[in-house]
Specification:
Blueprint lengths: L4 H12 L6 H12 L3 E2 H12 L4 H14 L3 E3 L7 E3 L7 E5 L5 E4 L25 E4 L2 H4 L16 H25 L1
Parallel strand pairs: 4-6
Antiparallel strand pairs: 1-3, 2-3, 4-5
Helix pairs in contact: 1-2, 2-3, 3-4
Amino acid sequence: MEQTREDHDVVALVRSAGLRVTASRIAVVKALSRQPHADADSVIRSVTAELGSVSPQGIYNVLTTFVEAGLVRRIEPAGSSALYELRVADNHHHVVCRRCGAVQDVDCAVGRRPCLTPSETHGYLLDEAEVTFWGICPACQSTKRGATQSTRTSRPDRSKRRSQEITDQQTKVKENRSARKRR
């Protein structure tokens, strides 16, 4: 099978992070290039369609490795699964539809990190500001669905979100330990 220009670029991207090139890593990058802001399940479906049977845990591990290597950015809009994107070279934000969950990139107002200045840093050395804008996307605006029919009208309470963050962090620690053992 002849390698395309896209395949060559994907291989170069993976190698640029000092990572081994594998079929699953190539397939994950391709999936994210086709579908920015994809959740892990969408990536798994895309990779499975391309490669056949794959281990979902293996794809989660690839995503975690890519985030740690700086190849992929993980975003977590409130009330949503983690989403992954390849756009990592700048400080941009996101706009999320409250009804359907569609996500789009929004360029930073100033363009350098951080692009927002808080009134107080509390001694922190700031390097990034993450902003999520919420609203109704054009597609949902054109439908006749009322606000009462919206599936995403409210954001989860902080305690549920914090509990999920702790669970996610524990999972990430376990994944990191497993990854280190395999290397």
